[in-house]
Amino acid sequence: MDEVFPNGFVWGVATSAFQIEGAHDTDGRGPSIWDTYAEQPGFIEDGSNAHVACDHYHRYAEDIALMTSLGVGAYRFSVAWPRILPTGRGAANVAGLDFYDRLVDGLLAAGIAPWATLYHWDLPQALEDEGGWTNRSTVDAFVEFTHAVSGRLGDRVAHWITHNEPWCVSVLGHAQGAHAPGKRSWPDALVASHHLLLSHGRAVEVIRENAPRAKIGITLNVSECEPASPSEADHIAARQFDGELIRWFLDPIYLGRYPNDVIEYHEREGRLPRGMDFVKAGDLEEINTPIDFLGVNYYSRAVVRSATIPEADNEPRTIAVPDPAELTDMGWEVYPKGLTHSLVRLNADYEPASLVVTENGAAYAMGPGPDGPVQDTRRCDYVKSHLEACLAAIASGVPLHGYFLWSLLDNFEWAFGNAKRFGIVWVDFETQERIIKASGHMYSRIVRTNTISGEQAA
Ligand code: IFM
Predict the structure, then answer these.
(1) Are 452 and 384 in contact (CB under 8 A)?
(2) pLDDT for 204-222, tens place per residue?
């Protein structure tokens, strides 16, 4: 197989605001739902919070210099809504906008293309107090936020992502309680998912007004959903999970309708007590607004078993871990073939104009050895095998145009806190020292040469 990527392939690194910025109450930033969530005793595995995180708010210039030394061509970051509109709507906080202005100008001066994500989970707490994503008025607030940000940065940011992983926001945040705002209600999760999608469609229109030449997309967390056994029950369960995770979001976006089998499944599970009454006339047309690319965040596959999880009373199936399997520190199976299969399948089912891997990476704990360097060989292997998977997809005709490694920096991994390290740059959270790991050096060679040939798996 050809080990060279197409000319013009975008090589990037990704982060998100809440996970790296810190400066939680600086320059007028308001509290977000994740600040509130992290304050609850026991909600963050290692008891950490993101008040300082990687202190990127103050060290962004140093972090741009790191990206320059890696040689990456693009940087995917997110804009903290509570920095721009501290209570969610109303007058924009100029100091917050100024920060992203400096960041974008710094990136452009360094020859790095900014890719801005609008919503990467940090909803202003004031909006949550009014019902958050379950309240349709949050869609209007998101439109205000999009106006403020794209109005200020749209002359320089040429790539926009409306939402990051709306399944996590709706299901992990509203049905499973594993993410902020920590709710456990499937009906709320499905209402929230619709409002997220509607806000996506409306935001696309706003960005097109403020940045007419920009490319706009949305990012989903994608897994290849496979049955745990050949049994019919497991096949059905895998298809249901695929429906909940992928088709529930992409069918409205690309086909202008919710998938009937998934509606029926949610109804059977009692998750739609009032049917689909939250879908108003015209909503699906707005959600179906054309976009320029589909962002894919891929980490692992989902092996699905039909049996109920005993401790999670509202889940009718289990996501199993195959045995034996190679696992990352998240307990996620290393399964690069699933990335090829997912890209090929999404391309066939939805025919997006372009696909971009907007996140891929692995959590491994290894830090500096006695003589300094961080030998994260397993992350090197993970990245290389997933880039091979990208090449296989391209060879099958998938219009894959870029890859963003998650993540530039070790950072605040949501409910796991600082304990799970995804960075290709190691961060000492006490001193804020940064050290490029072996994976960062390897990635640097790859992005400079546009090929993975010469990178040996360990
Ligand atoms: O850290 C997260 C990121 O915020 C969203 N996608 C998955 C990553 C790893 O869990």
Answers:
(1) yes
(2) 999 999 999 999 999 999 9
